[in-house]
Amino acid sequence: MRILVVEDDKKTADYAVKGFSEAGHTCDVIVDGRDALFQATRSPYDVLVVDRMIPGLDGLSMVKALRAANVKVPVLFLTSIGGVDDRVEGLEAGGDDYLVKPFAFSELLARVHALARRPPVQDQKTVLQVADLELDLVKRLVTRQGQPIDLQPREFRLLEILMRNEGRVLTRTMLLERVWDLHFDPKTSVVETHISRLRAKIDKPFEAQLLHTLRNTGYSLHAPR
Question: CA-to-CA distance for 39 and 65, rounded, in angstroms?
Fold first, then answer.
């Protein structure tokens, strides 16, 4: 793989590069967020490993700019900022994984390998439909009865997961893992809050309800029965 490490701490960067090189991968290191953004939009990489606290342009803003430019390369945040809200913020900005320092290189390598194995978006179905609700993954557009619906990035991802699992009940834990990539319960109402916002946008303005809550079980999206 070709990996871009965006890290201004020389010790951390050298440690990561040494490990990746020993595993047979090629690494570039950039210490400035603006330079990294320029490089990542012009050169093909398999994975980006990004620190949040970097000069020029912070890692969060850099990844947001990448996604705005339709650069789909997987991004792993590697940072000392490790609170639950910080992780959620990083994933909502467009990150695909989040690892907190200090870290074991074996875990970093395993996570990078996992990101690289994910199938590219173009190999997947790009338009999802449930009843009169449509979601276009390429255009990042959601419509119902032909009317555009404005969704925030995490709402869009939540709807995508629900539509891919049409008619299936997804628990709160499953949504935390698939939408927020959190493999633990942060004891917050983040799922419930996003479900409520999503329902207000895709259901309330219309006659038929598509998004259903199953008490003490989870959530399901399906056509009226």
Answer: 12
Amino acid at 91: L
Query: Would you give the end-to-end CA distance of the chain in angstroms?
Result: 48
pLDDT of residue 44: 85
Q: Is the peptide bond before 102 cis (omega within 30 degrees of 0)?
A: yes
CB neighbour list of residue 115: distance below 8 Å, 6 or more residues apart = 47, 74, 76, 96, 97
- The answer to whether residues 6 and 30 touch, using CB atoms and an 8 Å cutoff, is yes
Q: Are 8 and 79 in contact (CB under 8 A)?
A: no
pTM > 0.90: yes or no: no
User: Is residue 149 helix, strand or coil?
Assistant: strand
Give residues with Cβ within 8 angstroms of 170, minimum separation 6: 161, 162, 178, 218, 219, 220
13 CA to centre of own chain:
24
Lowest average pLDDT, out of 105-114, 127-136, 174-183, goes to 174-183
Q: How far apart are CA 203 and CA 208, in angstroms?
A: 7
Contacts of 17 (CB under 8 A, 6+ apart): 5, 27, 29
